């Protein structure tokens, strides 16, 4: 089940990711809680989320171009350092007692800028560490590492905040230290064992070339459009669960952190199941999106904190199944020279659209109640999944895993 870990470079990367992801999830909880402490505003929380993901919208595609042009390991060394420093500064400001909401806004944007270039490089780096044979297993293991952090991080963050008399600074400092794990892992890799993808020559036209490639590939195009729908409207849990915990169920930081942990249990289960699959399947992706939409719609109707937490388990499972399957489909269906740009589009439609809707989600939660913002996102996600299934059902299809992508020559324009 864990055969991708036989690759030394990937093994180092995975262990470092477990530590770093735990710190990242701790920071997510602490950052959201700090904004609510400073402002008591769902709109401010939405603005913070928007600023963190705005760089992905503005620069994410350029991050994909860079990933197709430069060694991905070098890119990751830079991006991980930048994000670690941002966490360090925020922690020092909070510990010193001088933090203001604009500091959070600014440093959230810095984290987003690092992520805009980090995500395409990191996702397309996986196949260079493990090869195509172990790719699906490695993607599942990546999600497992991500969700192990998601299980532990929110709970630890909630406990630390409570133990620190509602201070979030120690959480940010721990996250800053956690970036050292992935930096050490990247530094210890054996470059000779990496299966480097062909790199595109420097020049103009790379972004247009990537967009043309996506438009010409029906399955890739549909996967991205469906993902855009549920990523934009459904994956706003940092806002919706915070508002549900605080405004609907009257819980504090510990209760909010526990919801994140509960949802991560479902996501971790989905990640482990994904690691067992030998090849990604389009029908699994579409079924997961549809189930996600139904569950999210229902979650906003839950009458109690406990019933809400219970629904978060299958909601987490379906969300990670959809995201992992989409990632694996896009990697196996894309020409190697285009992989960074295709994955940057995937990151863009999952995270980059948040600046467009996060303030709106926060405003809806404030004006009409958190239940409306949560269930509304579920309904729109369901519509996207059904539309994708109907569209592809009308087309003549063949098994995705059985088709090799047509080669695309690297442009030197």
UniProtKB/TrEMBL annotation:
UniProt keyword annotations, A-Z: Cell membrane, Membrane, Transmembrane, Transmembrane helix, Transport
Disulfide bond in keyword set: no
Q: Cross-referenced CDD domains, in alphabetical order? A: MFS_MefA_like (cd06173)
Q: Which PROSITE patterns does this UniProt record tie to the protein?
A: MFS (PS50850)
Q: Under what name is this protein listed? A: Putative MFS family arabinose efflux permease
Transmembrane regions: 12-30, 42-63, 75-93, 99-117, 138-161, 167-186, 222-244, 256-275, 282-302, 308-330, 342-364, 370-392
Membrane topology qualifier: Multi-pass membrane protein
What InterPro entries has UniProt attached to this entry? MFS_dom, MFS_trans_sf, TM_effector
Question: What subcellular locations does the record give?
Answer: Cell membrane
User: Which residue range or ranges hold the Major facilitator superfamily (MFS) profile domain?
Assistant: 1-413
Source organism superkingdom: Bacteria
Q: Extract one GO cellular component term from the record.
A: plasma membrane
**GO molecular function annotation:** transmembrane transporter activity
């Amino acid at each position: 089940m864990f055969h991708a870990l036989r690759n030394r470079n990937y093994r180092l990367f995975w262990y470092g990711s477990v530590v770093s992801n735990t710190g990242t999830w701790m920071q997510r909880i602490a950052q959201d809680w700090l904004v609510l402490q400073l402002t008591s505003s769902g709109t401010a929380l939405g603005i913070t989320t928007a600023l963190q993901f705005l760089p992905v919208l503005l620069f994410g595609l350029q991050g994909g171009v860079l990933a197709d042009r430069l060694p991905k390991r070098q890119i990751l060394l830079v991006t991980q350092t930048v994000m670690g420093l941002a966490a360090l500064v925020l922690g020092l400001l909070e510990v010193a007692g001088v933090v203001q909401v604009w500091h959070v806004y600014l440093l959230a944007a810095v984290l987003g800028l690092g992520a805009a270039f980090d995500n395409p490089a990191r996702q397309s780096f996986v196949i260079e560490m493990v090869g195509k044979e172990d790719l699906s297993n490695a993607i599942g293991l990546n999600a497992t590492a991500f969700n192990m952090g998601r299980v532990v991080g929110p709970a630890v963050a909630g406990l630390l905040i409570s133990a620190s008399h509602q201070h979030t600074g120690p959480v940010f400092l721990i996250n800053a230290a956690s970036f050292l794990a992935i930096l050490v892992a990247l530094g210890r890799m054996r470059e000779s064992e990496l299966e480097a993808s062909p790199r595109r020559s420097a020049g103009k036209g790379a972004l247009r070339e990537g967009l043309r490639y996506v438009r010409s590939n029906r399955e890739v195009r549909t996967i991205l459009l469906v993902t855009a729908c549920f990523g934009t409207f459904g994956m706003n849990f940092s806002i919706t669960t915070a508002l549900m915990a605080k405004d609907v169920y009257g819980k504090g930081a510990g209760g909010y952190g526990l919801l994140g942990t509960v949802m991560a249990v479902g996501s971790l289960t989905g990640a482990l199941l994904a690691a067992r699959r030998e090849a990604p399947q389009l029908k699994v992706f579409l079924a997961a999106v549809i189930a996600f939409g139904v569950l999210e719609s229902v979650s906003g109707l839950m009458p109690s904190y406990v019933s809400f937490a219970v629904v978060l388990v299958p909601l987490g499972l379906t969300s990670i199944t959809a995201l992992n399957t989409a990632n694996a489909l896009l990697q196996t269906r894309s020409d190697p020279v285009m992989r960074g740009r295709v994955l940057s589009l995937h990151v863009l439609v999952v995270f980059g659209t948040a600046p467009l809707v996060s303030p709106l989600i926060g405003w809806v939660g404030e004006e009409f109640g958190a239940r409306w913002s949560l269930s509304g996102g579920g309904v729109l996600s369901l519509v996207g999944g059904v539309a994708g299934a109907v569209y592809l059902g009308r087309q003549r299809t063949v098994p995705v895993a059985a088709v090799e992508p047509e080669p695309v020559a690297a442009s030197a324009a």
